[in-house]
Design brief:
CATH topology of the largest domain: Rossmann fold
Structural class: alpha/beta
Strand order of the largest sheet: 13-17-14-16-15-18
Number of strands: 18
Strand content: 15-25%
Helix content: 25-40%
Number of helices: 18
Oligomer: single chain
């Protein structure tokens, strides 16, 4: 089962593996997505909710599975917690057509769950969207519930593959790049874990969690944060509520950006330190199926560009000296030395030194296995009301992050992403013709773009590629992590 906006565009290699499973191995495929993508043509069942209602359909699917008495009895024998609570949870009403399709999908999953070897015949894949963290969390919980129901508590974790929007998101979290975490998913409040890291780094660490992205920008606005380092990211491309984000970044006393391209965020910075491109990096990345893979340098650095790890190390050593602290902890000779420290501090990476990685053996992340399987009730939001069409966005296949983040004319030379996709019914009601320029507007701003009429989108919704003009569409999305944006559309008057 695949839940994604369009897996072909966001994770095309993973999509190819899914197609292989269907075409070569005879797998039955269930796709959950409001928007048509090529993978839908390979599906036995296509569950097509309205945008933002994906979790509703998944909750209905779980409810249908709970009607299987043999499946429920098996889960009770395995002491799975939360069965009664999940069964009592409310599930919003679906259309008759969608209800029938949910029933068909439930039969398919229940049948696969009973195939030997038990619990190992199902894979559930979720491609996390760039925007809407709160809604994505609800969908992930719903899919985890389905993994437990279909695969049992022992195999549930192995059956669920959560694909982040960008490579190495899991590696970042493994290292503790999150407000409340130390390396290895240990809480900052954990005194023993904190002391272990403090000893390795020869410094003291705070016992309270740090700030998330929006919290940090709010602190900038309030004057509590006056300087910031942005490494390898462009919030003015990927973050919603772009106008507010730009205001906050512009008000900093000092902004340092370390990046391989001169992004919109870098243009606001007082100092930009050039990073090498992805092809010039040496290190590792961690895939969604929990493998640590080597990344090797393929091209020489251009100009003054240097690897970000070296820039950070020298910056840290200089700052330590300025503050009268020990800067020896920053003296790394190579990425292999950094990995040596990681292996010592992060239990999950204990067998991930370069010697082990280059032996070609599969890493066993035993420490990531859940201690228990607990079904979680879902907090389902009602369908969003409001004027206009529901606006959605995601990656498409053709444009690279690097070229679009600098607004390069080479980003989309064939003009394959310069459109807003509208359903024919909405286009007729609005009096818009295919190829016409239209203005998408709401209280946050407006975007002028060419119309493409297509049945790929449902009536009542509009789709704009995320990578169009350096993420121009994100200006129309507000700060609410779970809320969908709505836009009014009007034909632009010809000059």
């Amino acid at each position: 089962m695949v839940a994604a906006d369009d897996l072909e565009s966001s994770h095309n290699v993973a999509c190819l593996r899914v197609k292989d499973a269907v075409v070569r191995n005879g797998a039955r495929l269930i796709v959950v997505t409001p928007r048509w993508g090529e993978l839908c043509d390979f599906a036995q069942v296509w569950l097509r909710p309205n945008p933002g209602q994906e979790a509703h359909v998944l909750a209905a699917l779980a409810r249908a599975l709970l009607q299987d008495e043999k499946l429920v009895a098996s889960l009770k024998e395995s002491s799975v917690a939360g069965l009664e609570e999940l069964a009592k949870g409310s599930v919003p009403a679906l259309s008759d057509e969608l209800t029938d399709l949910v029933s068909e999908a439930a039969v398919t999953l229940a049948d696969a769950a009973k195939q030997p070897p038990a619990g190992k015949a199902i894979a559930i894949v979720y491609a996390v969207p760039h925007l809407g963290a709160q809604a994505a969390g609800t969908v992930t919980t719903a899919l985890a519930n389905l993994a437990i129901l279909c695969c049992g508590p022992q195999e549930a974790a192995r059956s669920l593959f959560v694909l982040p929007p960008e490579v190495n998101a899991w590696g970042l979290q493994d290292m503790g790049v999150a407000p409340g975490l130390l390396p290895g998913y240990r809480a900052v409040e954990d005194k023993g874990a904190r002391q272990e890291v403090e000893k390795a780094w020869s410094t003291s660490l705070p016992s309270a969690a740090g700030l998330g992205f929006r919290e940090a920008l709010a602190a900038v606005q309030e004057g509590r944060i006056r300087a910031m380092v942005v490494l390898g990211d462009n919030p003015l491309f990927t973050a919603p509520d772009k106008t507010w984000v730009k205001t906050c970044l512009s008000s900093l006393d000092f902004l340092l950006v370390i990046d391989s391209v001169l992004s919109d965020t870098a243009r606001l910075a007082q100092v930009v330190l050039p990073d090498v491109s992805v092809f010039g990096k040496d290190g590792t990345y961690t895939s969604a199926d929990r493998r640590i893979l080597r990344l090797r340098t393929a091209v020489a650095p251009v100009g003054e560009a240097r690897p970000a790890w070296r820039t950070l190390a020298e910056l840290g050593a200089a700052l330590a000296q300025r503050l009268g602290l020990d800067g020896n902890a920053w003296e790394y000779a190579s990425p292999a030395e950094v990995m040596e420290e990681i292996a010592g501090l992060v239990p999950l990476y204990g067998q991930a030194r370069y010697g082990e990685l280059e032996s070609g053996t599969q890493q066993d992340f035993a420490g990531l296995k859940p201690q228990a399987a607990v079904l979680q009730p879902l907090a389902l939001e009602p369908s969003a009301a409001g004027e206009g069409l529901v606006l959605t966005t995601s990656r498409t296949l053709y444009t690279s992050w690097e070229s679009t983040t600098i607004h390069s004319p080479e980003a989309d030379k064939l003009h394959r992403e310069e459109f807003v996709e509208l359903n024919a019914a909405d286009a007729a009601a609005l009096g818009v013709e295919d190829g016409q320029e239209a203005v998408l507007a709401n209280e946050r701003g407006e975007l002028t773009i060419r119309v493409k009429i297509s049945d790929s989108v449902l009536p009542g919704s509009a789709f704009v590629p995320l990578y169009y003009d350096g993420g121009a569409v994100t200006a129309l999305f507000g700060p609410e992590d779970g809320a969908l944006a709505r836009v009014r559309i009007a034909v632009r008057a010809r000059a």
